[in-house]
Amino acid sequence: MIGACSSDTQVTPNALTASGTAPATSTVSSPSPLSIKGAPATSVEAGQAYNFDPTAGGGAGNALTFTITGQPPWATFNSATGALAGTPTAAEVGTYANIVITVSAGNATASLAAFTIKVTETATGSATLTWAAPALNTDGTAITNLAGFRIYYGTSEGALTQVITVPSATTTTYAIEQLDTGTYYFAVAAYNTDGVESGQSNIGSKTI
User: Is residue 21 part of a domain?
Assistant: First the structure.
C-alpha cells in the first residue's frame, strides 16, 4: 500500500508584481467628414470659356460622385469631378442663378453654396484712322489715277492680316467698329485704277 506523501516544505506561490507600465491603448482615427470647396467665377463674357473645378475630400474612403442643379444650358457638367465648363454665345447673354453642386459618398452629402453666373455681352470698341493721300508716284510724277486705299490691321504688328478696301480717292478717314478688347496695329496703302498698290504707311496702334 502506498502511503500518502507528505512534505515539511510549504511552497508559496510568488505574488505577481505590477511593473508600473500603463495598459496598452489603441487610437482609432475617425474619417474626415465629406466636404466640397471652391470659389466659382460669377461672370463670363460671351464667347469666352468658363471653367470651375471644385475640390472635394473625405467620405470615409467611399467613391465621390457629383450632381448639379440649375446647370446653365451652355455648360457641361462632369459627374466624376464636379467640373462645370462651357462657352456661352452672344445669344446666351443673361443671368443663370441658383446653381448648386453637390458631392456624395455613401450616405453622406455636401454642397457648395448656391451661386450665380452672369453672361455679359462681348466688349467691343472702335478705332478711327486718318491719313494723307499721296500726291506723287515713286518716280516723282504727279498721281492722276488714284483710286482708293486699303487698310491693313491685326493684333500683331508683324501680321496685319485683316484688310478693308476704301474705294474712294478723296476719303482719308475711316472708323473700324466692333473690335474686341486687345491691342490692334494699323497701316494704310494707296492703290490706283490699274490696281497698283503703294507701300504701306507707318504702323499705328490702339488698345481697346
Answer: no
